[in-house]
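Appendix B. One record, verbatim.
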Amino acid sequence: MTDPLPVPPDSSPESDYRLWIGNLDSRLTEFSILKILQKFGSLKKFDFLYHKSGPDQGKSRGYCFASYDNKASAEHAMAKMNGKLALSKRLIVKWANKDVSIEQEKPKMTNAGNRTEEEDISPQSKIQAIEAKLQKMQDRNPSMDLKAVPGSSQLSVVQREARLKQLELINAKKQSRKPYKR
């Protein structure tokens, strides 16, 4: 009979220098990211996440976590990797600590079992709370301002019209070709 594996002690926030590396290109492999991260110091833990089910099963989720032995290595990795182009995408590197203010904004459970205080609030109040939370998130990180580029979606009107024009040109070329006559 084998002995059970020892459970590692919980790491305190002071000793855990964990980074979140996001916006990974789907072509990047776990091995390539690991090799890049090891250049900045000794890793304690590395988590490269994959989809477990659905149409993307087995594909990368587009982010990973890396824990370094010391703060200097983690800060060096963050400084060198954040914003760098990796294949076709710019990497985003942040501390992976939980955001305490967001945790505190979650609805509290009441004595009524699964019912929350949030259910007693009017829809207008809920909307205002969500808008306030979004504003707070945007104020915290204004560089994450996401705006849609017109015509960037495959389903957009601009893309559809461009495809129709291409098809018209192809059909016009086919019709202009006359069979060879002697």
